[in-house]
Prior knowledge:
α9 (319-326) links the parallel β20 (306-307) and β21. This protein folds into two domains: 4-22 and 233-429, Enolpyruvate transferase domain (UDP-n-acetylglucosamine1-carboxyvinyl-transferase, Chain, Alpha-beta prism), CATH 3.65.10; 24-211, UDP-n-acetylglucosamine1-carboxyvinyl-transferase, Chain (Alpha-beta prism), CATH 3.65.10.10. The chain is of the alpha/beta class. The strands form seven sheets. The chain has a four-stranded mixed beta sheet with strand order 2-17-19-18. The relative contact order is 0.14. The protein has helices spanning 24-36, 50-61, 96-107, 127-135, 170-180, 198-205, 236-248, 267-275, 319-326, 348-358, 389-398, 421-429; strands spanning 4-7, 15-18, 38-44, 65-69, 72-78, 90-91, 112-116, 139-141, 151-154, 158-159, 162-164, 183-184, 186-190, 210-213, 216-220, 229-231, 253-260, 278-287, 290-298, 306-307, 331-335, 362-366, 369-374, 381-384, 406-409. It is globular.
Amino acid sequence: xxxxxxxxxxxxxxxxxxxxxxxxxxxxxxxxxxxxxxxxxxxxxxxxxxxxxxxxxxxxxxxxxxxxxxxxxxxxxxxxxxxxxxxxxxxxxxxxxxxxxxxxxxxxxxxxxxxxxxxxxxxxxxxxxxxxxxxxxxxxxxxxxxxxxxxxxxxxxxxxxxxxxxxxxxxxxxxxxxxxxxxxxxxxxxxxxxxxxxxxxxxxxxxxxxxxxxxxxxxxxxxxxxxxxxxxxxxxxxxxxxxxxxxxxxxxxxxxxxxxxxxxxxxxxxxxxxxxxxxxxxxxxxxxxxxxxxxxxxxxxxxxxxxxxxxxxxxxxxxxxxxxxxxxxxxxxxxxxxxxxxxxxxxxxxxxxxxxxxxxxxxxxxxxxxxxxxxxxxxxxxxxxxxxxxxxxxxxxxxxxxxxxxxxxxxxxxxxxxxxxxxxxxxxxxx
Length: 431
């Protein structure tokens, strides 16, 4: 058995101020665009978690000069048309964002590469990305029956397409837009429900011509980007775990400084408010096209609700901790239209249901979500993180509401997005 961490609290209350790590999605994209662009890019507030560091290492292999000191990164790139041929596989580790977005970038490059990942990532589907990329003329090969890593990508000039997304996915949309940057013509992506739009915002900030109109976004091929200075706001998906903790523990109030409030990501705020938590937003600012603010979350008497439809893409990564929160709310909470959870780092629908049941939660899985009846008292126990950072953090926050200690298997996976999570948890519970 691997590493296990004991988490236990006596009558906990969460109080204090917190600056959460930089946004993971924005950190990935800042490095990617800095490497694609010509010249120097400076990133401040970079998330120095495992996934984003994988993205940096890949671009170093492509000949891009990258220097990092903690959360500050300096990139000096000759532009992607002058990248060098790597001598080893480009290893994405456990990062689905790195793998899927790199497929779009590499497809339109001038290098031939092998993109690989760890055991977990190598069983996650890539066909949602490779299918539209192949429609654009991308040469992507695998020795396996399905489009699974490792994948060989032979870079070439691509052809623009009009693509209608079967499922809202920021990763797939971003891969197509990155490929469209090096395609002949104008590439258009249409979604039924708009997914997070960090790629569109950052492409525009780096000087690309991007047309966003409702659920449709287009990019003109053959554009050259210039290096920029990027300030990465705090990751609302990381803050969400402590937000949920504050919302469910009587007497709790936590203030989050400079947390990102991109409107495609603020579903957690809407859910917390509707369930009964008190939310106050102040000091709103906007840097490099991304809004951020101070968010204060105070305990409230929670009520169950139905979560589905257009709300789902705006809180897809927060659903594990929302399910936990629902176990402490009065009434029934229904999570639906969330099939995307089945293809995350693990099958999060099955995993969340299994782990919360271990603690006594009244929860059942459905094909596209979960049904949770509350409130129910939770016991402690041994919880499996499945190597999934969101599940590891959910287990730790669950310990705030349990009658006994929680033992988390493989807690180090939390380093993927929140390297100092347990230190911050300690700060908020020791007031």
